[in-house]
């Protein structure tokens, strides 16, 4: 059996990962439909105010109320993670289970990885290029162990293929211990 160098979430938590993804997806759909309904109601109230001139003020107030509900619900929706990533790094391969609209599983032998680099300046998207295959892009949740894995840990496992600016990362996030201490203190 190969040694596991890194795993997130740990195996005990992984059993419910599929269920958690389904719950998050259902919650996101509810919020999305709430925003759509609130915007529709706001438009209806605005147009009804033109038909009922005497109650115009009430319809304007209701329009503003529904716009406010849509804005608050939209802000709540923006905070939810829209994807999940299960990472398991062993001595010879990297296994990723990526949950966005659906689950996709990828297994990378370290010998076939040509390059790993961040696709944005905020370090929340990573691109993995393999020999003779199309590059795969993964979004990362900010300030999580999955982001920390690609910021710090993968550079120790595969230093030759990681195309990241270590000095810039350390300047922005501190060293590996600082990063993990900060995110775990934030979760408690």
Structure description:
Helix 2 packs antiparallel against helix 3 (56-79) and helix 4 runs antiparallel to helix 6 (176-187). By secondary structure, the protein is an alpha+beta fold. The chain is elongated, with a radius of gyration of 22 Å. 15% of the residues are buried. The chain has six helices and seven strands. The mean pLDDT is 83.
Key words describing this protein structure:
four-stranded antiparallel β-sheet; three-stranded antiparallel β-sheet; single chain; alpha+beta; 188 residues
SSE layout and pairing:
Layout: E1 4-8, H1 11-14, H2 17-51, H3 56-79, E2 84-90, E3 93-99, E4 103-109, E5 113-118, E6 125-130, E7 136-139, H4 145-157, H5 166-173, H6 176-187
Antiparallel strand pairs: 1-2, 2-3, 3-4, 5-6, 6-7
Helix pairs in contact: 2-3, 4-6
How is this structure best summarized?
This protein is α+β, with helices and mostly antiparallel strands. The chain has helices at 11-14, 17-51, 56-79, 145-157, 166-173, 176-187, and strands spanning 4-8, 84-90, 93-99, 103-109, 113-118, 125-130, 136-139.
By DSSP (H or I, 4+ residues per run), the number of helices equals 6
Helicity level: 40-55%
Main sheet strand line-up: 1-2-3-4
Structural class: alpha+beta
| Rough outline | elongated
SSE order: EHHHEEEEEEHHH
Number of strands: 7
Oligomer: single chain
- How much of the sequence lies in strands comes to 15-25%
Rg (C-alpha, Å): 22 Å
Give the low-confidence spans.
none
Q: Could you tell me how far the N terminus lies from the C terminus, measured between alpha carbons in angstroms?
A: 34 Å
């Amino acid at each position: 059996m190969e040694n596991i160098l890194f795993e997130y979430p740990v195996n005990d938590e992984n059993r419910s990962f599929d269920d958690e993804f389904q719950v998050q997806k259902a919650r996101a759909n509810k919020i999305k439909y709430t925003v759509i309904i609130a915007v529709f109601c706001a438009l209806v109230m605005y147009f009804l105010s033109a038909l009922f001139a005497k109650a115009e003020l009430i319809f304007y107030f209701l329009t503003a109320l529904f716009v406010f509900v849509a804005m608050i619900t939209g802000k709540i929706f923006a905070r939810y993670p829209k994807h999940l990533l299960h990472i398991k790094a062993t001595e010879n391969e990297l296994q990723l289970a990526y949950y966005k609209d659906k689950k996709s599983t990828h297994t990378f032998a370290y010998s076939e990885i040509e390059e790993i680099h961040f696709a944005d300046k905020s370090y929340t998207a990573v691109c993995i290029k393999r020999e003779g295959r199309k590059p795969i892009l993964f979004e990362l949740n900010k300030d999580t162990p999955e982001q920390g894995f690609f910021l710090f840990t993968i550079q120790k496992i595969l230093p030759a293929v990681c195309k990241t600016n270590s000095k810039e990362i350390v300047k922005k996030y501190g060293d590996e211990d600082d990063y993990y201490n900060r995110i775990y203190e934030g979760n408690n």
